[in-house]
Amino acid sequence: MKKTLIYIIVAAVLVGLAAYKIAGNKEKQTKEVKEVAKQVDKINVNIVTVSRENIDTDYSANGTFLPKQEMNQSSEIAGRIVNVLVKEGSRVSAGQTLATIKRDAIEVDVSQAQNNLQNAIIDNQRYENAYKTGGVTKQQLDNSRLQLKNMQVAVKAQGVRVNDTSIRAGISGTINKKMVEPGTVVSVGTSMFEIVNINSLKLSVLVDESQIGRIQLGQEVPINVNVLPEDSFVGRITFIAPKSDASLNFPVEIEVQNRGNLKAGMYATATFKTNHGAETQNMLTVPAEAFVNGVSSGQLFVVENGVAKMIKVTVGKIYGDKVQVLSGLNGGEQIVTSGQINLDNGSKVNIIK
């Protein structure tokens, strides 16, 4: 009987402890549920505190060097190549003979045209004399004069053909590629030589629309060439496209005098210096990603007392991933940088650390 009583007391104690534990767990769960409930109506966001900072206002653009001049020298007549007078790498001057085409048949035509001209001269003189004495009509004399002119033109045309048998360089430069050899038969328009002039080169780059207003024709631009890190170059802007491409970039060309170590096709970086100096070095900026519907909207969410409020700011220039703010912020504000898509004006937010 005594044992039974002990068992009953122990069992009662265990039941009491279990009940106490269950009650404690329930209270803890209730607290957790309440805490979660508080967060359910809040939207998670990342923020950044607005501040002033020194911004490098220089703008860089990458591009490749192009020859100032280049052309494919082609044949103006058909025929067989007799001589090729240059090789790849040869420097040539405008007008220099590069190759010759066989002209035996053309010289025969020249002789024939000259003979015809001499006959026309003699015939015309005979008609001129006869007309003075009334031996021929005015119409016959006019036909004779016309025949003489036609023969003179024919001689000139054959002279042009003879001249065209010498293939001459259209520009000064270097033979980059030779496409013919002696014995090659060419037709009119056949490409024979590729000539490039790299005494000066053009660096072709694309400039973003936000920066195009900062540059002008004639402006000097420092240039760094990737494969020549020890050398420094300066070019001058010679062309700014009046129209952008589909990506709102403007083609710009910068002419650089070649000191002999630059080659067409080299990759380089042009750095456009700002004209504003210290005025734009220290400025109020926010990340470009903070703007709602893009930088052009000027709309931002500011967090105040756990609530997101949409504001409108006036933006200035864009420097990489930073955007200058001209008005609408004073500094120190907390700006939402991610999670804006889920926000409305007045939404409660939970700042993610």
Automatic annotation (TrEMBL):
InterPro entries cross-referenced by the UniProt entry: Beta-barrel_RND_2 (IPR058792), MdtA-like_BSH (IPR058625), RND_pump_MFP (IPR006143), YknX-like_C (IPR058637)
Keywords: Coiled coil
GO MF terms, alphabetically ordered: efflux transmembrane transporter activity
GO cellular component, as recorded: efflux pump complex
Residue span, Multidrug resistance protein MdtA-like barrel-sandwich hybrid domain: 75-196
Pfam families per the UniProt record, alphabetical: Beta-barrel_RND_2 (PF25954), BSH_RND (PF25917), YknX_C (PF25989)
Hydrolase in keyword set: no
SUPFAM superfamilies: HlyD-like secretion proteins (SSF111369)
Coiled coil feature spans: 103-130
Domain YknX-like C-terminal permuted SH3-like positions: 284-350
CusB-like beta-barrel domain ranges (all copies): 204-274
Stated family: Belongs to the membrane fusion protein (MFP) (TC 8.A.1) family.
Protein name: Efflux RND transporter periplasmic adaptor subunit
Organism: Chryseobacterium lactis
